[in-house]
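The record is given unchanged here:
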Amino acid sequence: VAALGVLIITVQVMLVLAYRNLGKTTVTYGTATDVVTGLARVQRETLELAIELERLRLPDGLDKLAVRRGLVDQQIEVTLGSVPPGGVEREGLGRARRQLKSFDAELARLRADPTPAQLARSRPVLERHVDGVQLTLKELYDVSEITFFGSINDALHARTNLERVLIGTSGATLTVALILALSLRRRANRT
């Protein structure tokens, strides 16, 4: 009977630990999914900014470019909401924002003097800044993608471990039940 009590307590502890591990892994997987998705959206908005810059014609194009630039910043903000504190993505997105500040300064120069000559001087500078942001985001996405696949791997291992615990628990329970049944049968036969 004492063995049965120890087995029950051991099984319960193993189940709680396995479920806790699975729950933690699920949260990590969800966070990694949100971050990778957010980074992909930031990359898309940055690509749209680059396309808008390539199509830029004065004077109407400056407003379209400014709107597109605002959408990049908005998507960065949304993505930062998914990044856990201390995440490498937070620092990378901060670096991209600093690069975009240089873009903003050059765009302000172009807005102050919206002439074809200034556009010819500003376009290569703006393109260089957008290219730098795209490179930063690509590197950041690659790192986050590795984290994402690692979280998938962890989730699969946690699930496998839980299945092993449940199978082991079932086997131990069946063994104890069989021993108890045989013990009861022997006692019944003695009387």
Notes: The CA atoms of residues 117 and 172 lie 82 Å apart. Residues 116-190 form the longest helix (75 residues).
